[in-house]
Amino acid sequence: MSDRPSFTSLAEIVETGHCMGCGLCQSIAGKDHIAVTITPDGRQRPRQIAPIDPEHWALIARTCPGINVSAPPIEDGFAVDPVWGQLDRVVLGHASDPDLRFRAAGGGAMTALAASLLARGEVDFVMQVKAAADAPMRSETVFSRSVDEVIRASGSRYGPSTPLDSLRAALDLGERFAVVGKPCDITGIQNYAREEPRVAQQCKAMLAIVCGGGPEFRKSRDLVHDLGYRERDVTLMRYRGYGNPGRARVETRDGSAMELTYAELWDDESKWCSQPRCRICPDGIGESADVVSGDFWPHCQPTKEDAGFNSIMVRTERGRALFEAAQNSGFLTVVRRLAVADMCYTQPHQVTKKREMWARLRGLEAAGHPVMRVEDGLRLRDLAEGLSVAENLRAARGARLRAHRDRFSEDPVTPADED
User: Would you state the torsion angle of the CA atoms of residues 361, 362, 363, 368, taken in this order, to the nearest 10 degrees?
Assistant: First the structure.
């Protein structure tokens, strides 16, 4: 799977279901050429509004993480697990600060790591997403320059975001920064780093969450509508936190507040509203990041409210230094070491997806559907060889059938009507 895909336009990437709305293309071409909008289906998608310079398009085609999934170089002395990738260590931990641990998603480990970088002066800002100040159901990219700002941006955002729309703006500042994002966001930065040396010079840490897929905006929109409100009525949208997993909470301008348990929000899988590209994601575990944090629940299902814990995978030498410094400076508490078996027990869907992905992509090809380029370092072919012929055929046929039913395709981008 080393051949580069022959995508010829932004519209083709979107309409074949390969876009996740990360915003990298807009950062490269500029907002005068590419606009990012919420579509009627609730997807945040780029739309070309002016001719794109051929050099910019070539750069987009080479770096877009939707169609180019890169693998990190293996560092000396690091073990490589067939499913979980390069690992220095895996631990169970949480933010040391009890208030941060309580309010953040899970145990607040990712926030603690980012905050420690700022507190120790390792970076000048953290590029991350948070609830938009004037539209709390939506997310915006921010440059957090203090520990307080990082903490205020904590918490899961189960909806579309464009964390890379500001990547070139961040580089143009000439300052040191860290990035917190989804695995696909980190892949986009790593792809861009191969083209732009400033990334290696200025981006001092790449932190990722284990991701089961990015929901579309209609997940939030439908929830608010079911409660009898519209987006313009909402003053706060929190998906979890203030406990682990905590409750989803919606507050409105009339003073009302509604809460749902994690199970009430997510138990109905038909309402997950995941994006097409997420269904064929070959790396939901952040192999290109320095450190990755995930939920630590049996079979990925919370059984009760607790104080909050995270699994933490340290992937690189740079990640090791960050992890140890966060521990030593009192930002991060480590409870115990974990084994790969613990990750498989708490994230079984990631294991299944990774093992089946080679066959799923072959099924898409059999249906005549374009597929992304995936570097061999992600070991998809090797994992497929560990499955039986029947298992591979089942995964391939399922993907082919869904492709024939247009489950991996999207309509041309048109802006949604205002809510």
Answer: 100
Q: Where are the domains of the chain?
A: 1-412
Q: Where are the beta strands (DSSP E) in 161-267?
A: 177-181, 203-209, 234-238, 248-252, 257-260
Using CA atoms of 344, 379, 74, 281 in order, give the dihedral in degrees to the nearest 10.
-70
Which amino acid, 227?
Answer: L
At residue 100, the 3 state secondary structure works out as helix
Q: Which two tokens stand for residue 253?
A: 């301008």
Containing H/E element for 46? strand 44-48
Burial of 66 (0-12, 13-18, 19+ CB in 10 A): buried
Give how far Cα 191 sits from Cα of 26, 68, 195, 345, Å: 15, 8, 7, 31
pLDDT value at 2 more than 50: no
- Average of per-residue pLDDT across 319-343: 98
Closest to 56 measured CA to CA, from 184, 190, 172, 196: 196
Judge contact between 108 and 100, C-beta under 8 A: yes
Q: Are 284 and 313 in contact (CB under 8 A)?
A: no
Residues 289 and 320: their CA atoms lie apart, in Å, by 12
Nearest to 288 by CA among 25, 92, 85: 85
User: E strands along 116-233, which residues?
Assistant: 125-132, 135-144, 177-181, 203-209
Other residues' Cβ atoms within 10 Å of the Cβ of residue 100? 22
Here the tokens at position 148 are: 């307080």
d(CA 71, CA 35): 29
3-state secondary structure of 18: coil
pTM score, whole prediction: 0.95
Output the average pLDDT for the chain. 94
Tokens coding 408:
């991996």
Residue 358: burial class (beta carbons within 10 Å; 0-12, 13-18, 19+): buried
Backbone angles phi, psi at 382, to 5 degrees: -60, -40
Other C-beta atoms lying within 10 Å of the C-beta of residue 170: 23
Q: Which of 350, 316, 283 is nearest to 87 (CA)?
A: 316
pLDDT at residue number 309: 95
Do residues 417 and 42 touch, judged by C-beta distance below 8 A?
no
Phi then psi dihedrals of residue 306, to 5 deg: -140, -170
Helices of type H across 215-347: 217-226, 262-266, 317-328, 340-346
